Amino acid sequence: MSARYQLSGTTAVEISAGIESGIRTGALSPGAALPPVRALAADLGVSPATVARAYQELRQRGLLVTAGRLGTRVRPRPPVAARRSALRPPPLPGARDLSRGEPDRRLLPPLGPHLAALAADTGPSVSYSDAGVLPELAEVARARLDADGVPAGELTITGGALDGIERLLGAHLRPGDAVAVEDPGWANLLDLVAALGLRPIGVPVDDEGPMVAGVAAALAAGARALVVTSRAQNPTGSAVSAERAEALRALLAGRRDLLLIEDDHAAELARVPLHPLAGATASWAFLRSVSKPFGPDLRLAVLVGDETTVARVAGRTRVGAGWVSTVLQRLVLALWSDPAVDELVRRAAQSYEQRRDGLLTALAEHGLRAHGRSGINVWLPVPDETSAVTALRDAGWAVAPGALYRIAAAPAVRVTVSSLHADDLAPLAAALAHAANPTPPPGFPT
Length: 446
Ligand SMILES: Cc1ncc(COP(=O)(O)O)c(C=O)c1O
Fold this sequence. Notes:
Blueprint: H1 12-25, H2 37-44, H3 48-60, E1 64-66, E2 72-74, E3 96-97, H4 112-120, H5 135-147, E4 154-158, H6 161-172, E5 178-183, H7 187-195, E6 199-206, E7 209-210, H8 212-220, E8 223-229, H9 242-252, E9 259-264, E10 283-289, H10 291-294, E11 301-305, H11 307-319, H12 326-336, H13 339-365, E12 377-381, H14 385-394, E13 397-398, E14 400-401, E15 412-416, H15 425-436
Parallel strand pairs: 3-13, 5-6, 5-8, 8-9, 9-10
Antiparallel strand pairs: 1-2, 4-11, 6-7, 10-11, 12-15, 14-15
Helix pairs in contact: 1-3, 2-3, 6-11, 13-15, 14-15
Pyridoxal-5'-phosphate binds at residues 101, 160-162, 186, 229, 234, 263, 265, 289, 291, 296, 301.
């Protein structure tokens, strides 16, 4: 158990709530040992039966496991959304924060003019009976997806890519089912999978996307869904290449027992072509978010897929949240229809590419091979994440530790390049090189 986390409470409910909160905040990490029942009871001044009841409740909910002489521990992936950001130390005052994975706000298209136009023409009022996907938005979305070779399918709108993924997994899988996810992969997806009580199976990734042998192994291990990031994979920047897409499509061809989910979150920001897998399996869904190119606060993604899959997502939305506000849909439609906005997004994509390639080149000059084929992140393998993150912090740069994104992948750090300037590249590369190749301490070699 973390020496810093003090268990407390005088009733079983209080004790179990304290443990759950420790897991959520990251103070009790996966695998952390809890004190024996009698020891904790003596510590808290309660009866052993009270502590035993708290442990029992958390075991039943899958947060704890008791394994003979190993005692009681936090499960490796407890089904509560541990705040992975708790693993990320806050940047020191004055440090440059490259840990967030966010687009540069200055490169997002301004919403003001389009909001003003919407205010001037609010359109017909929409109520419960006539709400849903705006036909005009669906038409423009289909044309954009068609231009990228995404097969035509049924279409619905979700509150962002992750909302779509949650609805897809919720509609097709049950707690305990296995989901194949990229390793390293997006931290928020790993948290979502844990929160849904699903079991992640890591699929190794290289610069061309998920590796075929890894996907085959995940299928053999019983994965019921596979989530693939088309481009700008987070954290490695990998993008599914034409060859990889062909090999994966051949592997997945005709599978009726697997839900294939593709996340094209970078969308118009990506400077590499899309090679979709969509349609290879009977159950499939392709998501395109507007968060990265147009702004994360827009909370909207387009989801296309086979009829059954989309009907499940749309039907579940209808009995819950209802629909994605048509005000938001009209705003996205206005952004998509404005050539000046297209031009701003094109320039943002170009600018991210320059910063990313600039950092990769500067690192190569130090003999370091980092990854970042597309998107806003660079993934740099390091021998020891904790010492690398600490050394960089001391040098004034905050980066994200790879542990947030890894299941079994090798240690690394993620550097978000979106806010870098040209004259940051050389000092940052030097600091990264120092962090990746720390000078051994003086004295006898070990
Ligand atoms: C892989 C991936 N998918 C999706 C998103 C964003 O999704 P949303 O549309 O939910 O904002 C991100 C944001 O960082 C991401 O890294």
